[in-house]
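Example with several molecule types.
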Amino acid sequence: MAAVYSFAISIAGHVIQVETQHFRSCAICRHFLSDGAADIRIRVEQHDIDAEREAIERLAGYCSHWDGSLETFALHKRLAERLIDEDILLMHGAVIAVDRQAYLFTAPSGTGKTTHIRQWLDRCPGSFVVNGDKPFIRFSDDGSLPLACGSPWGGKEGMTSRAMIPLKAVILMERAEDNHISPISLADAFPVLLQQVYRSSDRRKMHKTLELLQRLHPAVSLWRFRCNNFKDDCFPTAYRALTGREP
Amino acid sequence: MRLKYEFEAVSMDDKFILVPVGDDAMKVNGVIKLNGPGLEIVDMLKTDTSEAAIADALAAKYDNGRSDLLCFVQSVLAVLRENGLISE
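Resulting structure tokens for the full complex:
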């Protein structure tokens, strides 16, 4: 089937012309539509959709997604692949912006990232969610400052924005009985970061991804947060350590 | 024996982190941290080799006794085997 939907989206400082076969892809990108001149073009073909279905079938034994849904997965992957060439990473995590600084909480699904950033939203006036699930991370034009950027993939709650905010910290969350947060080295954080970043099967792109991950630190501080969202000291523990201020 | 998968070594602090790359990278869970001699062992495993051949190669380079080096080789190989990274 030929591509029937063509639209431009603005993500992480780039305007991307996207061609798809299903309206669903356009719909999930609706907050990122742009009328700017595209510098990147992505066309999602039927073979990309078929590859997504086969990948899910290999993992789960069956695939219940329809083509429109699979196309959004394929678009997400094509974008992540393409943007590595522009020094941009896709990371799994939830990003909250407070006082024009972004904090990226990353952990496997179900750990409590969204529950936690809701506490920040409730208790920090002016805070907002940059992205709730799959933010992009780009570097400032001089290459020195990592910026957290929204993407159309905002998680179950669809929490996202078009903002690009300086990334101050990446926090590796783990569920625990008690709340405790401490800084960690890049070497200790690296295995987790690697699990949470988009990883290409293309060796050159993977090499670039590893370089970009290493560039994050020390501009971005790294933390291990043993977290119990149901205890009262959860938000204050994180806020105090990450911002250096009392909540 | 040899490595089953391709890896890229990332140097960090005084360690090397072995990251799976290529088409089969997703079949490997996690990463392996090694010191310098450990990475040399991994490099040798890019082609078919044996415990003894690796220990001999290290003995030619380091002053440690060969039996100590063989123990070290066996300990690194045990970690790689545990993680299913070696084809015999």
